[in-house]
Design a protein that fits this description.
489 residues, alpha/beta, six-stranded mixed β-sheet, binds magnesium ion
Amino acid sequence: MATMTEKVARPQIRQTQCFIGGKWIPSASGKTFETIHPATEEVIAQVAEGDKEDIDLAVDAARAQFDGGQWSQLDARDRGALMHKLADLIEAEADELAALETLDNGKPISDSRAADIPLVIDCLRYYAGWADKIQGETIPIRGDYFCYTRREPVGVVGQIIPWNFPALMAAWKWGPALAAGCTIVMKPAEQTPLTCLRMARLAQKAGIPDGVINVVPGYGPTAGAALVKHPGVDKIAFTGELATAKIIQREAADSMKRLTFELGGKSPNVIFADADLDAAAAGAHFALYFNQGQCCCAGSRLFVEDSVHDELIDRLVDSNKNRRLGDPFDPDTEQGPQVDQAQFDKVLKYVDYGKADGARCVSGGNRHGDQGYFVEPTLFTNVTDEMRIAQDEIFGPVLSVLKFSDVDEIVRRANNTNFGLAAAVWTRDIGKAHRFASQVRAGTVWVNCYDVFDAAAPFGGFKQSGLGRELGEAGLAAYTECKTVTVAM
Ligand code: NAI
Ligand code: MG
């Protein structure tokens, strides 16, 4: 189908160096690494490759800023005002940032514009509002004392983020840290460092003091590991793979760092026969294929009640046929490439596992085109609970459909995973919906909707999907220490 909409222009790449103590500097080693555009595989920039020396410098800058108190002891309302300024500057450059995200990550420009960047702005504004509302309590203890608590910033925080929502993950981590008065050393993902660096430039322009936000691009086992081990860092906030989180938890044990983790999932999406099937089919498609399937909360195990199973599969196959894959800078594109060769290979490996384990591939299953890391939207039926495609996080456009007939069994099957990030249920029976919501072991449950996010609503995992919560008041609490003060009267 011909399109009348014009392609969005490619953005300029301005920041590629480390941002430390308010200065843009090359890495100490002088090394750089390439970042690519996943739709064409072309190299788009050489980015400073930070390592231990750069992390040391960045932690020194963050430490000096924190201990000096220019940020942590700034009037809370002024801290909030600077965060609002940052949000305003991002809003003013929203189109440019969206294009930069699409260039570095490959996600469709319509998504970067409608979802990623607006959510970044919203998250920063939400937490800007918290800055002057972080309060303690007075406690009626026994005896002639006045006892109260203070919520103080946890200190210097190391923040390690992934590549699936690069700018948004930066905002989720900066928002609560800045509101609480912490200072930051962020290591963006090596696949997608560019929007985080641009946001750091805007933070500087907004007047957030030097050393409050430091960004060191680089690889996980070098720069990331140095941040985790650094004795000057009080807390690590990490989003990424479970296996990486386990390494971090061990490495952080010696210094007793505070840890929050937001990890993967194999989220159950349950459709009962009494659901609004139009909404459920559209919701199931969105739940898995959004962002090329690269979502921690992707609805990757779709349980469908047997009486509506075949009808639902027909609808899902149809939507896959109509899904527009292609140039992510085309505003009509709905699905871009996977982020890199490694993710592309992993996804196709799981397609092979699905076939080898006896599931039926009824849609997709192949590479799309011959350039870029595109994978067809893929759908497996006849999936059983123990298959690898029903147990492992694939992180790509591969949906596994499992049939059920026994309503009492569905909670047990939904919970049959080490993960517990999200779940959803589609039904017109309000009792059934709430029963499922209370029994499923997941940090977020959506009823008759999916992927509804709000900066005010906590998000995080049960079981091996994470530790602690991000967003909302809970996300803020993770950046504060509680201090008890007792005064003899
Ligand atoms: P990863 O966990 O290796 O990378 C995430 C971040 O951690 C990156 O910034 C990386 O440089 C850093 N990192 C890696 N090793 C580290 C270490 N030893 N110490 C400190 N930092 C380290 O995830 P990766 O390799 O990019 O993706 C692998 C799989 O992880 C995906 O296929 C997907 O299943 C899952 N994943 C889940 C995400 C989520 O949102 N929950 C996001 C990205 C990946
Ligand atoms: Mg990795």
